[in-house]
Design brief:
Length: 238
């Protein structure tokens, strides 16, 4: 499985290993990513240029937060963003806590190129925050996903760290997306979050689900807009 593991302390050697990932060398050389292993049942509708969309470009330069709706679809929405970044030639990296990780076959079935997605395993929230800081400082990534789902509903990042992530995201035109288990009624990560959204799903056919992202807070455009797309459900999902 083409995943890259980093030490809990995120030492410079571990960061160097991530930055030396073959996927990044290929992208930096200007080569296109390999074709995805599978495609979703129907690609999300492309929004007009002037309209907001759930895309890396829309979230670039910002600290964003994604939580669950009534029927959670957080990982699906996050992977849609990873796929969008990869198709735009922007390297993405995924930071997870401990052994908690998305299911790679499902990600591949949704169009994500696993060979171009380095994964950093952090021991705890503090290590995850340090990893995000270091990876953003490298300037090598257009999308940094910080998966805090394993930390529970009360997972937070210190305000000084959030401030650094915001500054680095702006400096390197990168999108930082934090995944949380807390729903829209729960307190946000903090006032420095530029965009907060909730992802939910609804069955629309045999093995097909409508994934919807509702934006509850958006400092750039204002809240109230949404994005949706139809995806195949994972095996065994009723």
């Amino acid at each position: 499985m083409p995943l890259v593991a980093a030490a809990a302390a995120i030492a410079p050697a571990a960061l160097a290993e991530v930055l030396a990932h073959p996927a990044l060398r290929r992208l930096c050389a200007g080569a296109s990513c390999p074709s995805p292993l599978a495609a979703p049942a129907a690609a999300p509708q492309a929004a007009p240029v002037a309209a907001p969309a759930w895309s890396r470009a829309e979230l670039s330069g910002r600290l964003c937060e994604l939580g669950p709706g009534r029927e959670p679809a957080v990982l699906t929405a996050a992977m849609a963003l990873v796929r969008d970044a990869q198709r735009a030639g922007e390297p993405a990296v995924w930071i997870s806590l401990g052994n908690d990780l998305f299911y790679p076959p499902d990600a591949a079935a949704g169009g994500v190129d696993l060979a171009a997605l380095p994964v950093v395993r952090a021991r705890d929230l503090a290590a995850a925050g340090r990893a995000a800081d270091l990876l953003l400082r490298s300037g090598a990534f257009g999308l940094v996903v910080v998966d805090l789902l394993a930390a529970g509903e009360r997972a937070v990042l210190p305000v000084p760290l959030q401030s650094r992530l915001v500054q680095l995201a702006r400096r390197h035109d990168a999108a930082v997306l934090c995944l949380r288990r807390a729903g829209p009624e729960a307190p946000s990560l903090g006032s420095l979050v530029s965009l907060r959204a909730a992802a939910t799903r609804r069955r629309v056919g045999d093995g097909r689900y409508l994934c919807r992202v509702d934006v509850r807070k958006d400092k750039r455009r204002g809240p109230g807009w949404s994005w949706q797309g139809v995806w195949r459900g994972a095996d065994g999902l009723c």
